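Subject: Protein record for review, amino acid sequence with backbone structure tokens
How to read it: Take the token row as a discrete description of the fold.
Enclosed: The protein record, placed directly beneath this head.
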Amino acid sequence: MALPCIWSGASGALNLMLFNELGLSAELLRAIDKKGYRQTTPIQQQAIPVILDGQDILACAQTGTGKTAGFTLPILQRLQKPSSGSRRIQVLILTPTRELAAQVAESVRDYGYHLPFKTTAIFGGVSINTQISKLKKDTDVVVATPGRLLDHIERNTVDLSGIDVLVLDEADRMLDMGFIRDIRKILKKLPNKRQNLLFSATFSNEIRRLAADLLNAPIEIQVAARNALADRVEQVVHPVDRARKRALLSHLIRSENWRQVLVFTRTKHGA
């Protein structure tokens, strides 16, 4: 499938707009102003009008580019105001990890602070009964990890038949973590007519195959070169044999006076 592409290249290639130039509601602008934001990021400037127009998108965006607000703000604007006796889950946002699910759910609540919509986060590692209780109450937006959402589907504790918008956030990570089967099971529970938004840090062949199955005439948005690093990440390589890795790490921490360090290792024994 041929995908139309909106290409902005590096972050500075666009003349960035103010949020109040995008046609967002007064309630959303109040929430944005409270968070201290004025100017859009490239992904926000490109994605928000397309989503407001009801089109599917395939967006390539790194973490830290503002992509969460890029889909949250237009989704909140397009949500139907709930009326008595007809409330349903309108939006499903799938994320690879519970940490990201909690973060996205918090963003939805923050941006929707002045709107009458309710958000429920569903992920593992916490009581499923608490989540069931929340789902029995009025919920408009569900942010979930695939595994725990399938648990709810199998228990018949969530109704996805009224979904208008599906978001796959960090889709490449979900595929890397082996969630593709879970995702396809979830898709079978959703109505065929819906808006689909797929966000990924890379456009691998697997992502494009998923997009071909999932998206309907999508607009493709890229805000960085294909598979490029985030602009603010500096990488340095130190070739060193295994026996001296710990000594080198200790030396770097001392000599650079690093106060916060995150170390990844191949095995738990190494950690």
Observations:
- Confidence is low (pLDDT under 50) at residues 1-12.
- Strands lie at 5-7, 57-60, 91-94, 119-122, 141-144, 165-168, 195-200, 219-222.
- The two ends are 44 Å apart (CA to CA).
